[in-house]
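User: I'm curious whether this sequence folds into something compact or stays loose and floppy. Could you predict its structure so I can see for myself?
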Amino acid sequence: MKFTARKLVMIAIFGALAYVLMLFKFPLPFMPPFMDFDLAGVPELLGTFLLGPVAGIFIVLIKLLIKLATVGTASMFTGEIQNFILSISFILPASLMYRRSTFKNSALKGMLTGTAVVTFVACLSNVYFIIPFYTKLYGLSMEAIIAMTQAVNPMVDSVWKLVIIGIIPFNLIKYGVTTAIVYFSLDRLRSIFLRREFL
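Assistant: Here's the prediction. I'll summarize afterward.
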C-alpha cells in the first residue's frame, strides 16, 4: 500500500472517529453485562473498504492508542488486545473479499463472512483468554461471571450457555448492525472519495 499524505490523514480521521464512537458504549438487554455494544466498527470497516486492509489495521491501532493515551487501561491491556483481535477478525475477511470485486454484493458477502469469523473468535477468546484473565485479575470465579450474566438472563447457567445465548448473539447483533450501516452508506462515501480523489 502506498501511503500518500491524503491517505494518512484519512486513516487518522477514521481512527479518531472509531475512538469517539467507542466511547458511546452500553450493554445490551439479556446479554453479558461485561460486553459493551458500540459502533466503532463502522469507521474501521469503512476506512478498510475505502483505503485497504493495511489502512484498516492502522485505523484500529490509532483508535486504541488514543484510548490508552486519554483514559488508560483498566485491564492490564487485555481489553485492548481483545478489542484489536476482534476488530481485525472482522475487517480483514470483509476487506479481502471486497477487494476481489468492489461491488456492493461483494462487500455484503465480506461483511457477513467477517461477522461469522469475529463471532467464532470472540467465543474462543472469551472462554479461553478474557474471562479466565478477569477471574484472576478481580479475584472472581467462573461461577461469579455466570451469575453476573444470569442476573440479566436467567437462562445462562453454564459456560456453554454463556457462549450460546450470550456471546454468540451479542456479536451477531453488534456486527450485524455495523454491517447494515456500512452496507447502506458505502456507495455514497465511495463516490465522494472518488470524486475528491482521496483513493
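Summary: The chain has a mean pLDDT of 90. The longest helix spans residues 159-195.
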